[in-house]
Amino acid sequence: MTIDRFWDLLSKKNCGEASSGELKELEEIFLTHPEWKNTSDILSNLNFQSTVFENNEEAESAFEAHVTRMKKADVEFNDIRLNYEEIEPRRGGPSSKKWLISAGVLVLALITVFVLKISKVSSETKSGKQTNLSQVTTKPGSRKTQVLLPDGSVVWLNSSSKLTYDKNFGKNIREVSLTGEAFFDVTKDSSHPFIIHTNVIDIKVLGTAFNVRSYPGDASTETSLIRGKVEVTVKNRSNAKIYLSPNEKLTVLNNVTVNKIATSQSPVKNVSEKTLSVDQLNYSPVDSTPIETAWVDNKLRFQKNETFREVALKMERWYAVTIIFDDKEVEQIPLFGSFTTETIDQALDALREIHAFNYTKTENVIRITK
Amino acid sequence: MKKSENIRLLQQAIACFDDTQAYKQLFLLFYPSLVHFAVSIIKSKELAEEIVSDVFMKIWQKRQHLEKVENLSFYLFTAVKNRCINQFNDFKNRTGVNINDISIEFKSIYHDPEQKMISAETIKQIQEAIQELPPRCRLIFKLVKEEGLKYKEVAELLQLSVKTVENQMSLAFKKIGSAINFNLHQLTVFSKN
User: Fold this and answer.
1) CB pairs under 8 A between A and B
2) What pTM was estimated for this model as a whole?
3) Distances (CA, A) of A168 to A136, A158, A172
4) Contact with chain B for residue A217, Cβ under 8 A
5) What is the chain B residue with the closest CA to A65?
6) Which of B64, B107, B126 is facing A95, going by the closest CB pair?
7) Is A162 within 8 Å of A317 (Cβ atoms)?
8) ipTM value of the model?
9) Are B173 and A10 inside 8 Å of each other by CB?
């Protein structure tokens, strides 16, 4: 065995490129030359870091120079920190996407029409005189409203949601209250914790991007983490603190008996399941983005085990309609798919291709029958 | 969080949500290494910066496809290399380019948070040993250890055989190992059979 062979083996092992045979050979060498093990250990404790900027200023100016170049080349780049206005729902982009609805086996492609009938995005910011609160409320069907918080954090509000924060936001802590659904992109600031209050849970942000769903009519509140880390405290379970890592989702039952949709025969939901669970996010097999945050991307998506009844609830918010079921069987149909720019009629017609049902529409009320 | 996981999440945020903050983070993460790499090929820092900026511009323009990229590190280095090669022909014809405008300093930082076995002195020796490696060997070492590329990827990137990469890495380790041994006053007798 030459010394060169030792270095061949050691270098491979260190870089994770050694075969099991080579690893064995190296172990045998160490038995006869224990002093080399020492060198090997030292080398394996070294951590190399890729080249970084000298300092923050250099980093910032490099990026700024890059952005300037992009703008000169007419590349659209909306640096969010400068954007205080609401953005309108994206109407498709340079790449055309297909909207798929499937009942497990059947896949139908639905060509979409870009002119839509969404209710006007309504979000107002009012400041309460006594309480110094800022509040942003979205109406049903408003789909996506962007709110820029004083610290640079960005919040996207889904339909029928309300975000409230104090005028003193950011002075000591960054605190907001949420009803409904929002996606948070929080700027890092460890000296000012970011806390979100909902009815059932409090969320302390230790990281950056995540989704919270806490509608009063829903059976549960969901928190889905995309990036960073969050600490969730469940109210009324005082010491329960749960930490989420990226791609995890926490679901907490709201503990209310819920009548989700008015039906002619509606059983009260039986709350006997676990009140709390942490799961992996559901990824859409179509384009592997998390279903939980599809709405931020202007899609209404529903998962494999959602019944028509559950889907209808989402559709109610998305399209600003009321959906009533006259038939219990139709309620239970399992659905899976996604919508973007369809009108409610197009959506219902598309669903009818999967499973037969009829509906009537009077103004904003839809009755579903067999 | 592991670096590769972090990169995956940034990709997702950019592709799905047009997240400009994530884009900036990705840029800052890769820019210095990519520029260094480009300089080692085309020898001009100014051109290198332009090339890397162009690559990132493309990334933004085609961000919807970003999620599909399996190995972003390798993808970026390859993109930069290809542009450098294309540029090289133009470069030769350009006049007035300052060839002295090069700074190929491989200032890897070694941190060793858990073990206190390694003294600052030893680290300095290691850094010097790496700096003294022949340029191509040093580049290969950097791509593997700092950028996390696999032997196979480095071979493809630099148009070498995997065996060559193996040999160069072995050589690099030998030199570093010798530096450590010397510093620790270890007398090791290597037998040749």
Assistant:
1) 158
2) 0.48
3) 16, 25, 8
4) no
5) B53
6) B64
7) no
8) 0.81
9) yes
